[in-house]
Amino acid sequence: MFTTTVTPKSPVRVGTFPDAHLSNFKYSKSGALVFSAYVYEDRNLSSVREQDEKWRNRGNTALVYDENFVRHWDEYRGPKRQALFSVDLKKSNGEWSLGEEVFSLQLPQHSTPVEPFGGAEDFDLSETHIIYTTKDPKVPEALHTRQNIYLAPLRPAPGSDLVRELTSGIQGATHNPVLSKDGKKAAWAEMERDGYESDRSKLVVYDIEAGVRFTVTEDWDQSVADLTFTPDGKSIVFTSGHNAKILLYTIPVPPTPSQSDKHLPLVIPIALTTKHSATNPQTLPGGRVSFTSSSLNSPNDIFVLSGLDTDSALPHKIEIKPFI
Fold it and tell me: What is the C-alpha end-to-end distance of the chain, expressed in Å?
């Protein structure tokens, strides 16, 4: 692993990872570097290469399964699964270095990102915790679409079991879990019914301190995706398909109810764009949002939307400019 500056400069070596397939890197302000890796059941990064060699030289190509989910589409499932890990990334005297201890962040039966399409959007970080989605380990994976949301510490103590489930356990698929900047609230997109792959994705918010979960868009007739909190945690920006376009929206986070209740008063999200297809929104300081936008005659370009730093019901001024 190497680092470099924004201005051209020779890369500086930070450290070396075990010889495993690593991807989906994310960095926390507290100095934790989180990534995913394909590992065996023991979750040992250092032994992946050795176990790969044993698997290749096992002497036959027969596959024996003790579950009914033997393949997804045209690829048979092997002995490895994706899992999340963290390692400290420290800076001293202007130089970065990797910590010596690698933390396994998930329970043994959890796998994130969720295959085959999951990626870095399947988890998010605060300064102290990670939130992630994974298939419900209590039901047969081949017969259910249910994915649960969990919260776990970035630096778990050896032998500790501090993984906390945030979902109800009776929902369908969940996607795009995110944490507010202060780590006090979580949000994700959730389908209500297990077994449905094209159900409406609703915006669910979880107050971590109060332990209360509530659905914000229960009575809204569109699906949400690409969620992100604003820096102050008071609003959520997301995308949603509407009339053959994918528009950018914002919605205020309602006050936390006294108990988990999905039937809150209807709040209509505010559309921030009116045309084309918006993706990958990232909230920025100063009431700004960066996002990519494409159309039938234009590829993805990066844009910055400004004018959201207001307490009024509607943004006082919205400007969308190409990012140059």
Answer: 29
CATH of 2-322, picked from 1.20.1260, 2.120.10, 2.40.128, 2.60.40, is: 2.120.10
Which residues are CB-neighbours of 177 under 8 A, at least 6 positions away?
122, 123, 124, 131, 132, 133, 149, 186, 187, 188
| Contact (CB, 8 A) for 122 and 110 | no
What's the pLDDT band for 156 if we cut at 50, 70, 90?
Answer: confident
Residue 56 or residue 312, greater confidence: 56
Q: How far is CA 137 from CA 85, 121, 146, 147, 323, in A?
A: 19, 20, 9, 9, 43
CB atoms within 10 A of CB 170: 10
Residue 192 neighbours by CB under 8 Å, 6+ apart? 171, 172, 199, 200, 202
Reported pTM: 0.91
